[in-house]
Amino acid sequence: MKKNSLRILSLLLLLCVALSVLASCSLGCTTHKDDNRDGICDTCSKEIPACEKCTDTDRNGVCDLCFRAVTIPCSIHKDEQRDGICDVCATVLPAWVDYVAQTKLDMHSATLKEEVTVKYYIDGDTTHFESDTLGTNGVAKARYLAVNTPESTGKIEEWGKPASNFTKEKLSSAHSIIIEADGSSWEQDSNGRYLLWIWYQPAAGAEYRNLNLELLQEGFGRSASVSEGRYGSACVAAMGQAKTYGLHLFSGEKDETFPYDEAISVSLKELRTNIAAYAGKNVVVEGVVVRNSNWEVYIESYDAATARSYGMQIFYGYISGLNNVLLPGNEVRITGTVQEFFGTYQISNLTYKPLRPTDPANTVVLSKGHTPPFTEIAPKDFLASVTVPVTKTDAEGESYEEDKIFKNAELLLSSSVSMKDLLVTKVYTTTNVQSDDYGAMTLTCKAADGTVISVRTEVLLDENGDLITDQYFYGETIDVKGIVEFYQPDSGEGKYQIRAYTMNDFVIHGN
User: Are 221 and 273 in the same domain?
Assistant: First the structure.
């Protein structure tokens, strides 16, 4: 009985397979396949009908549906070789014109000119030059005429860093740099920056090249207010050509240095001067690690435009491997969330992907071997107010600067500083043996001008491992270096103090 049942089931199975084959032969494929591109389906052997309109989403030169060879013009052409042929669809483009080479510096024209050297590189369209005639204390802040490059000093924009790097590369290797006014006088914008054409000589004896124009020609910026400018027509033509050739800003491609997830790429200066606006947001910042202690680090970066260092406290917790990334002296890129922390802010919830070291939205080492500055500051200046230009954005999306008053210590928060000649007049020691801070001290110090500064220490040990007590400091005159931190007491107004971590942070002079 069982054998008969098995035979019947086998016959039924064979019948189903046969019917399936017959059905496919009579109906043809629902989706054809043609690996050898001969127009005949590899499965059902029928001719594949041509499409009314071919599509080629993967740009391999073959229609996605009928498998015939197609050439579909690009929505954005790309021609890295500058040979006039699109690299993707082979469309013939207008012949490449080197507008920079065609535009000459006329040293005999009526425009004002001066040979200068670079003081600070700011971003793609802003540089500070050392000048004999312009600016304050011999430094002329230059805003490039005719070109706007994406931001790279405040809220960092896509292609901002590549544009900034392009400018720095050209000027840092130049044999000579000449700034030129657009007319017979030096004009300034509302922020006091000189509006200039920038010329650089690549090598001795070479012709000068106009960097404003070259930024536009290479697609690193957009032309702005140039119709009346001295080299306006060339600038407009150069940007139009960059669009035609799909260069950088106009390529439709991603900037490899820019994080495209929800994180906002900002400078530490922007974060420190506008911190409340970023509360709860994911950010990407870059800086040099100054201190690493108890699962937190402090990073800082120098802003040449304001001649100041700006810092940030980073809490990385127990993320495995990050302690080997966040080492003092390492320049790092950090992705995390801005969060309120005891009356101030820190970055936490760091993103760390050890298997994706080139991911812009990752915490990684950018370079090594940096020395923290521990900028010396006078006690009275530490507690004073300062005015710093803050980057704003107008209704048209254009960036501008506006002066804002801060407490100096507020701007120095989480950055490294040093002070000299402080007399220790009082010492408070944490005596709670249950506390991790047992033995840590707060030194009340007085400067020669009467300014009072608070210095907080970690638990300090001498070379024998013995606890250092108030007797080491009380009545002594000290130099100190450390990190600026905010202290919120149980009652009263919060204050800023210097936090020292080891005895190497002190020099004791005595009286």
Answer: no
